[in-house]
Design goal:
The chain is mainly alpha-helical and 113 residues long. It has one domain. The protein contains four helices and no strands. It has helices at 7-13, 16-41, 45-68, 73-111. Helix 2 (16-41) packs antiparallel against helix 3 and helix 2 (16-41) runs parallel beside helix 4. The N and C termini lie far apart (70 Å).
């Protein structure tokens, strides 16, 4: 176990492969958080509850790791950022596409097409 006072020991104990796995896991966690929020806002209780349970299982795994080595917080934070970014970007693009297709329909209606 590497303690916060021993940065050198923490770097030596850091497993890069495991750090990458945490990065990927937290991309999933934050993507799930964004999906969870969307499902709650849509009143989809079963999918929201399931997503919430999965989130907490993955979070527990991450917490157990950074308790052992605080440097694992770095890939966790980076994965969190990427996961949220991906979901919000997807939703923004989906919304923009939906809005532009609807605007095109309105223009055709106005022109009589």
């Amino acid at each position: 176990m590497a303690f916060p006072g021993t940065i050198t020991a923490s770097w030596i104990a850091l497993d890069l492969g495991f750090a990458l796995a945490l990065f990927a896991a937290y991309i999933v966690v934050d993507a799930l958080y964004a999906e969870y929020t969307l499902r709650v806002m849509q009143y989809k209780e079963y999918s929201a509850a399931t997503i919430g349970a999965v989130i907490h299982l993955i979070l527990a795994f991450g917490v157990l790791q950074y308790v052992q080595n605080f440097l694992y917080v770095i890939p966790i934070a980076a994965g969190s950022w990427v996961g949220t970014f991906i979901v919000i970007r997807r939703e923004r693009l989906r919304h923009a596409a939906h809005t532009s297709s609807r605007d095109g329909e309105n223009v055709r209606k106005i022109k009589g097409g």
